[in-house]
Amino acid sequence: MKLFTAALATETNTFSPIPTGLACFRARGYFKAGQHPDQMMHFAGPTWATRLRARGQDWDVVEGTAAGAMPAGVTTRHAYETLRDEILDDLKRAGKVDIVLLGLHGAMVADGYDDCEGDILGRVREIVGKDVVVGAELDPHCHLTPTMTDNADLLICFKEYPHTDILDRGLELVDKCIAIHQGKIRPVHAVFDCDMASMMHTSRDPMRGFVDRLLELEKSDPGVVSVSVAHSFPWGDVPEMGTKVLVYTHDDPAKAAALADTLGHEIIDFRDRLQAPYPAVPDAVEQALAGPTFPAVLADSADNPGGGAAGDSTFILEELLKRKVKDAVVGPFWDPVAVQLCEDAGVGARLPLRIGGKTSPASGQPLDVTCVVRELKPETIMTGLSGSPSRLGNVAVIDVDGILIVLVSTRNQAIGTDLFTQFGIDLGRQKLIVVKSSQHFYAEYSRISDRIIYVDSPGSVPRDLRVLKYKKVRMPKWPVGSDKP
Questions:
Q1: Which secondary-structure segment (H or E) carries 5?
Q2: Rounded to an integer, what distance in angstroms lies between the CA atom of residue 339 and that of residue 206?
Q3: Which helix (H) or strand (E) element contains residue 227?
Q4: Interatomic CA distance for residues 381 and 162, integer angstroms
Q5: pLDDT tens per residue across span 177-213
Q6: Neighbours of 483 (CB within 10 A)
Q7: Average pLDDT of the chain?
């Protein structure tokens, strides 16, 4: 049995001012054919899962290019076509294969391509023909399109948000695609469109119980091959944006359609309970400082680099400085210029520094502070999704009147607590922990504090979708085009 695996993934915020070029893929992870490292990269789950499953087996595994970029704005045509064509050329050189396993995102948009994943899957299908099994692992924050489902035998989304199950779903994809190749499964699919868009935290109900039931359903009903929920990625202005349920059954299209319909209507019924409270910046800081226990974690959701924002907004930091808050940490704060200035000054230096507010109006105004450089570290790694490594670049930790700020040269969101702890910062002794993240921080930071506050801050990933100027999304798409907040 011969398997081919490759990956190309990024999440595109079409409202972000940051273009996604080849350098963005090199900054996060770009490995040519056969050069994937000996550890899982979160954008290439199927490649790592295939390696694990192939151990001790008489399989011929061909690994093509694996590339992933931090979410940002529209991918350049040059970057997309270059990486796509590398993967397709790798596939052609592999010759006849039995199974193709791809790590994709599902919400990648490039100049001239609203549906990059559909384009890739369609071209893969043209190369391998109809008899080869084609499967892909997707992020649930995807735009599930007919072109994608028509050209794949099996698509599986991560079920968890935070995405703690990347490897689990990758292994599931490998196992089920092998079963398809062996004739043990004959999957047919159905899609139900919920005509809505929402963030669905699986760390709490109603999604926690819903996902648990999906996992049990897949185990207990042999007729159900796979159930995925495409949560949506509302900051991508493409026609197919929205929440959808994808069901695969074993050779039973009526069952697939009925189950997708039932599950989709259940999501619609509880959609009002999906959103956590989001106080505005002053209210969120006031609530956090009121205690009674510390630390409190404030999620700067709208400036989440994991959603395509810059990670350099100053709104929350400005509020902390105005209130003269002590014992607080903020990070990761993207400011390569400030990092360079700190490196030039050296550890222990006290210097005036202008930080943040550089990328766009969504970043707020730059702040002029006097700081002490506490730590400097080159080429820093943080624990990322599902334990994969995540790059921060060169890091400078500065102290501004009792607030420790982790400045990074490589744009990234807060995921692992080692964002702070590797610099000797005791998070348990802080009053406030401000993270540039929407939800991926939760898996680690909820172990430190049960006081999680999602902040309705300004930024490129706004909570209120009605402020976005959609041009391509089919409307209405609750809550956009709806009177309901």
A1: strand 2-9
A2: 42
A3: strand 224-230
A4: 19
A5: 999 999 999 999 999 999 999 999 999 999 999 999 9
A6: 6
A7: 97
Residue 377 sits at φ, ψ, to 5 deg, of: -150, 125
Beta strand residue intervals within 322-409, DSSP E: 328-334, 350-355, 367-383, 389-400, 403-408
Place of tokens 């109809």: 130
Q: Are strands 350-355 and 224-230 parallel, antiparallel or unpaired?
A: unpaired
Residue 257 CA to residue 259 CA, distance in Å, equals: 6
* Residue 258 structure tokens: 């009925």
Q: Which of 197, 31, 201 is CA-nearest to residue 103?
A: 31
Distance CA 106, CA 410 (A): 23
pTM over cut 0.90: yes
Cα–Cα distances in angstroms (integers) from residue 454 to residues 126, 363, 379, in the given order: 45, 18, 30
Taking the CB of residue 22, how many other CB atoms lie within 10 A of it?
17
Amino acid letter, 343: E
Count of all residues that appear for the chain in the document: 485
CA distance 244 to 129: 28
In the block, tokens 């699919």 appear at 189
Hey, CA dihedral for 39, 42, 47, 48, is it positive or negative? positive
Cα–Cα nearest to 311, from 327, 292, 334, 294: 334
Residue 96 in 3-state DSSP?
coil
User: Which amino acid would we find at residue 246?
Assistant: L
Q: Which residue has the tokens 């695969």?
A: 248
